[in-house]
Amino acid sequence: SQQGEEDPQALSIQEGENATMNCSYKTSINNLQWYRQNSGRGLVHLILIRSNEREKHSGRLRVTLDTSKKSSSLLITASRAADTASYFCATANTGNQFYFGTGTSLTVIP
Amino acid sequence: EPEVTQTPSHQVTQMGQEVILRCVPISNHLYFYWYRQILGQKVEFLVSFYNNEISEKSEIFDDQFSVERPDGSNFTLKIRSTKLEDSAMYFCASSAKGGYGYTFGSGTRLTVV
Q: For each of chain B's 113 residues, which pLDDT tens digit applies?
């Protein structure tokens, strides 16, 4: 299975701290995306990183990709209570489907 | 910003009944998808649709499921005879290019009783 697996499964931090979530996958990919999901709600696309990219930034988000280790990390800097959500990585190969991981549940304590 | 719209947001149906979940993808997108998420579990791929036909489908997408783009704007998922285990959040997504830049809808929560 190509499915990504996030680590840790749950993370609890204080507001203002940085949050780091990791994703590992098994096969070669075209790109990797991170999504956010508030409880019981839809998936919101955060950032896409292509297989030939190593790092990407978007606002307070920083994503890295290490294809040799088949891993990616998502860093949220200066976290806010509103960042509380589940975060998923999704990998895409040459096909049209994404494989989602089980997610990291992030709680930011005000 | 363009959105993928799904209706209804919540549907309750009796076991054995047929349900149709509706989606309006982003207008200039060419690829359409359905995913589902059983409560507390990971998001799972069901089917992708391009050029008016299914391009990929998962093992979950058996003969009880079908998809249709009836009028060039809507994209529907039909479950012919619902089972209790079909209860899940169903997400529609679209993209301009296969495998890139998905936009997801906010989902339809299907509850089969």
A: 778 999 999 999 999 999 999 999 999 899 999 999 998 888 899 999 999 999 989 999 999 999 999 887 899 999 999 999 999 999 999 988 776 678 889 899 999 99
Which tokens go with A76?
């949220």
Q: Which helix (H) or strand (E) holds A36?
A: strand A31-37
User: In whole angstroms, what is the distance from residue B61 CA to residue A37 CA?
Assistant: 24
Number of H helices, E strands in chain A: 0, 11
Total number of residues shown for chain B: 113
User: Are B100 and A92 in contact (CB < 8 Å)?
Assistant: yes
Euclidean distance between CA atoms B104 and A98, whole angstroms: 12
d(CA B109, nearest CA chain A) in Å: 9
Contact B48, A96 (CB under 8 A): yes
